[in-house]
TrEMBL record:
This is F-box domain-containing protein. It holds the Pfam family F-box. PROSITE patterns: FBOX (PS50181). InterPro entries: F-box_dom, F-box_Sdz-33. It comes from Caenorhabditis remanei. Residues 3-52 form the F-box domain.
Length: 391
């Protein structure tokens, strides 16, 4: 049988053949010439989701979407090794357990090979970077990758960035926050560093545009200036912070006056010490909404009854979740002990010099004779502070 000369085929059947290949075969064919690269671009109209990592070596993990969503089954992993660590040959391995195809690429400059491969993938596929794990990168390598991202016109947003924060790698987090210029979906921080009084913490400024910030563990390095620097972040989940009751009041005043955190949609933090709501709400002319008066939804599945409303200078309402009820839908009956707590709290504030107004009970939302078991899963000696801004 004579060999099939691919490049002699008409465009349509050639496109169908290319579409049956895996990502590595497509890349190898595209590297042959400018013509083959252009053919691949015409044939491969698929999204390639990319994950970047640096464990023992630089890694680019790719998954091609067949249906528009990310598949978790077939992964194509490019590993970059120094020529001194291998026999100077490119190799392929397949792990049937997790359906991962691994291609080991050797080079005298693995970082350069990493960036060249990344650039090539963006040229051939409709790429998006799903995640970047910065845990093991040194500052210089990290800076070069960030420079490539900033200069890539096809890259407009990175969905997720993850750091395992410790006392030894704070500089890399500061470097990322200070140099990354694209949009960011979510920044995850894991791990812990001691409070600022116990260590020389690298100054951090959260000026990059991100949708969500999530800290898993303790964020005892987050103080009031850092929180107020998060002006371009919509959703903030701090875990245990360094914030105080007075800090929360300053933050809310600044938000109310339109001086900071203007695009914030929700904030959650565990605040050390004893809660002092008279300090937190001082001077804000807040209105404590009765749980039977108002029901509002956050992110389609969080329903809040009541809360403490604060009006910003532009008319937008932000609500501190105190003396409220959290439900699963908008048609629940309020447990009677929630109402009892509200009324008791209201009586405690009567006669004080606070400018906070407590709303009267409404009739639209019914009260149940049942009682809710109120559980708070919080670190010891902390209270919960949740603030939601309604659209």
């Amino acid at each position: 049988m004579s060999p099939l000369h691919l490049l002699r085929l008409p465009l349509l059947p050639l496109q169908h053949i290319i579409q049956t290949w895996n990502i590595y075969e497509i890349c190898q064919f595209a590297k042959v010439s400018k013509r083959t690269k252009n053919l691949v671009k015409l044939a491969v109209k698929k999204t390639a989701y990319i994950i970047l990592n640096n464990l023992e070596n630089f890694q680019i993990e790719t998954t091609i979407s067949e249906s528009g969503s990310m598949s978790l089954w077939d992964t194509w992993l490019f590993k970059m090794k120094d020529v001194s660590e291998s026999d100077n040959t490119e190799s392929e391995a397949y792990n049937e357990n997790n359906r991962t195809h691994t291609f080991t690429l050797v080079s005298e400059n693995p970082l350069l090979r990493f960036l060249e491969t990344l650039k090539f993938l963006f040229e051939v596929f409709d790429c998006s970077i799903h995640s970047v794990y910065w845990n093991s990168w040194n500052s210089e390598d990290m800076r070069q990758v960030i420079d490539w991202m900033n200069g890539c016109d096809k890259l407009t947003k990175v969905e997720n960035v993850r750091f395992c924060l410790n006392v030894n790698n704070q500089m890399t987090l500061a470097l990322f926050l200070g140099t990354f210029q694209k949009k960011l979906g979510r920044l995850f921080l894991h791990g812990d560093v001691p409070p600022q009084g116990n260590t020389d913490l690298t100054p951090l400024n959260f000026s990059i545009e991100m949708e969500r910030f999530s800290n898993f563990g303790s964020a005892r390095w987050v103080n009031l200036p850092i929180l107020m620097s998060m002006n371009t972040c919509k959703s903030v989940d701090l875990g245990v912070s360094l914030l105080t009751n007075q800090d929360l009041n300053v933050f809310l005043r600044s938000w109310k006056e339109g001086r900071s955190n203007s695009i914030l949609e929700d904030l959650n933090a565990a605040v050390p010490g004893q809660e002092d709501w008279k300090t937190v709400l001082n001077g804000l002319r807040a209105v404590v909404r009765h749980p039977t008066q108002v029901t509002r939804c956050l992110k389609q599945y969080h329903w809040y009854y009541g809360g403490v409303d604060i009006q910003r200078v532009d008319g937008k309402i932000g609500t501190v979740m105190w003396t409220h009820y959290f439900g699963k839908n908008e048609h629940e009956e309020i447990p009677k002990n929630i109402i009892e707590v509200f009324e008791k709290t209201k009586q405690e504030w009567v006669g004080t010099d606070s400018d906070v107004v407590f709303e009267e009970r409404g009739n639209e939302i019914e009260v149940s004779d049942e009682e809710e078991i109120i559980e708070q899963h919080l670190p010891e000696n902390c209270f919960n502070f949740t603030f939601v801004v309604w659209k």
